[in-house]
Amino acid sequence: MHSQAVQAHRASGYVLRFQSLFHEGRALAFECDAGGRVDLDAMSERARLNYLYARTVIGRDFATPFIERTVH
Question: Which pLDDT score, from 0 to 100, does residue 4 have?
Answer without folding.
Answer: 39
